[in-house]
Amino acid sequence: MGRSMSAVRAASRAFLLTWQSIFRDKAALLLFFISGIVYSFFYPLPYSAETVRRVPVAIVDQDQSALSRQLIRFAGAHPSILVVGVSTRPEAAQELVWQGEAAGAMVIPADFSRKVLAGLQPEIEVSGHGAYPLLNKVVLNGLAEVAGTVSAGIELRRLGATTASAMQAEASRQPLTVEPLPLFNVREGYASYIVPGVVVLIIQQTFLLGIGLLFGSWRSEKSFPYAPGAASYCGALTAFALVVTLNALYFFGFVFWWQDYPRGGNLIGTAVLTVLFAYSVAALGMLIGMFFRTRERSMQLLVATSLPIMFLSGLAWPMSAIPVPLQVLGWSLPSTAAIQGFIATNQMGASLHEVRMELAGLLGLMVLFVALGMRKWRRFVLPA
Q1: Pairing outcome for strands 55-61 and 125-128
Q2: pLDDT at position 384, please?
Q3: Membrane-crossing residues (predicted)?
Q4: Maximum pairwise Cα distance, the chain
Q5: I need a labelling partner for 96 at 20 to 30 A (CA). Which of 58, 150, 160, 175 fits?
């Protein structure tokens, strides 16, 4: 009984010492808490529009007929497209693209209306600026939709001449109707897709940087605030895990509500994932931190890892397209399982059974990092 009470006191003392050390170190405090607040307002800002709209395009009208002018009007009315120039010369459109004033172009050939009236199928050239994949996709899809709308109207007029009513003509042209219904990303926006996953990476990386500063300072100054033993390790681990948990609660609770991202699908599942993620990241941070001899070393080694870790997580690049050795490397980091798990539970309402692989991955990493960290702890607290 006395030994257990002594362990509790040692753990409680380490817990309090950890928080005192965080609040005394301004740089660590900035990374642990202030940076998350800054990120929460400025990182989603470029994606606030959710979808790309009013992308500038140039149109080459070599036909100059009533039908080609209708096509241009339809392009101007499309929400994704902004017509910035109409000319009869392809060189003019090419110049706008080269100057960066247009992200794509549509060329209406000189025989466009003649082929339509003759019952033939004219060809419209659509091109986009390949240097900007997102804008290129919007331009190509938008101009294709414009051409498809005009084509449908022409076809309906032809069918209307041979059928009894316009409704029969529409049913004859399109016997099956499709009604797309987005289930989770209801806005079909980029921010709702990318930000919830990147938030997990932000929490992990800022924490690893902050804890690296603390441990590097303790190592360089030979001033270790902890007593040796497993109890002090567990107290410090719980304190650091609480830092990660508070950041997760801020992002998942306030930021997602403020930015109106999909959220709250499975609160219990998200809570379980948060606890496992917090302890696994805290254990990883303590393990890595004990290898730093100066506080600057964490910045030098960890800042450049954020982008590779993001690609390894399967968020920006499909997991099935990642080579198996890199998949194994990705799953050795808490962020991979956490990103997949949080998106599934918080955004999509998945059950704990459906994210069992992510839960098992975080639990396994937590046990591994804690085992390695406790082995390193005694030598760190009591250096030879």
Answers
A1: unpaired
A2: 47
A3: 27-45, 190-218, 230-258, 270-292, 299-319, 355-374
A4: 98
A5: 150
Instruction: Give, for 9, the enclosing helix (H) or strand (E).
Output: helix 2-24
Co-location of 268 and 287 in the same domain: yes
Contacts of 254 (CB under 8 A, 6+ apart): 40
Contact 226, 220 (CB under 8 A): no
User: What confidence tens digit (pLDDT) does each residue in 248-292 have?
Assistant: 999 998 998 888 888 878 899 999 999 999 999 999 999 998 888
pTM: 0.78
Least confident piece of the model among 20-24, 236-240, 262-266? 262-266
Structural domain for 230, as ranges: 2-47+189-381
Residue 182 lies in a domain: no
**Contacts of residue 201, Cβ cutoff 8 Å, sequence gap at least 6:** 306, 309, 310, 313, 335, 339
Does 184 fall in a domain?
no
Cα 90 to Cα 79: distance, rounded to the nearest angstrom: 24
* Distance (Å) of CA 226 to CA 78, 112, 167, 202, 278: 64, 80, 80, 28, 21
The answer to whether position 196 is within a domain reads: yes
3-state DSSP: the chain helix, strand, coil percent, rounded to 5? Answer: 65, 5, 25
pLDDT at 166 over 70: no
**Range of lowest pLDDT (10-14, 114-118, 128-132, 175-179):** 175-179
